[in-house]
Amino acid sequence: MHTPIGRSSLRIVLASALALPLVLTGCSRSSLSGPASPPPQPRQDALDAARQQMELIPPPSKTRYMAVHSLTSWENPYLTVQGGMVTLHVLMADANTSGLGEGGMLRPVGARRRNLDVRVSDLPTALNAIPESAWPYGRVVAVEEAHEIPIKARAEVRRNVETVLKTLGDLGVVAYEWTDTGRGL
């Protein structure tokens, strides 16, 4: 029998899920013996740890995510790239496994949606903080440019998109780019 989770319990579970990648990426292993080699770059260590964490999520299911043609129907995390940051949109899994009332007034989908503004450099940590249950299509993230970008900021946004795509590739996450018409490329 499944017991309902209270708000305070849910906050504790979410806080624990968000803190776990920070704890895991903060650990390092030192070599006590063997030839001395130059220490790896801290960014590369963090990226390798983040990639290992992301590998816990199954590979993407192309048949599932290619059938989605609207971000309102997209169930995996997606990113809106802006000038100085990235907005991470996450649809948390429904804690109630019953189909009764799903999407209705008592269980609206919008109540499970979370939006988080993240620096591009913190994207690996933010993605690792997302629970596995929020990745129904596997390791794939939709990426869109922010809408109505001022002309002066377009170059910066495009550079950020390229940085985000490279970061996702380094993490082993498939990037599914969205156009202005709402269909994936």
Describe the fold and architecture.
This protein is α/β, with parallel strands linked by helices. The chain has one domain. Helices cover 33% and strands 14% of the residues. The protein has five helices and five strands. The protein has helices spanning 7-26, 42-54, 62-65, 123-128, 154-171, and strands at 78-81, 86-91, 113-118, 140-145, 174-177. The chain has a five-stranded mixed beta sheet. Strand 1 (78-81) and strand 2 (86-91) form a beta hairpin. Helix 1 (7-26) packs across helix 2 (42-54). The model is unreliable at 1-11 and 20-34 (pLDDT under 50).
Task: Give the helix/strand layout.
Elements: H1 7-26, H2 42-54, H3 62-65, E1 78-81, E2 86-91, E3 113-118, H4 123-128, E4 140-145, H5 154-171, E5 174-177
Parallel strand pairs: 1-4, 4-5
Antiparallel strand pairs: 1-2, 2-3
Helix pairs in contact: 1-2
Region (Disordered): 29-48
Task: Quickly list its features.
5-stranded mixed β-sheet, 5 strands, alpha/beta, disordered N terminus, 33% helix, 185 residues
Radius of gyration (CA) equals: 18 Å
DSSP E strands, number: 5
Indicate the low-confidence ranges by residue numbers: 1-11, 20-34
**Average pLDDT:** 77
| Estimated share of beta-strand residues | 5-15%
Main sheet: strand order: 3-2-1-4-5
Helix content: 25-40%
Order of helices and strands: HHHEEEHEHE
How do you describe this structure in short?
With 185 residues, the chain is α/β, with parallel strands linked by helices. It is built from five helices and five strands. A hairpin with a 4-residue loop joins strand 1 and strand 2.
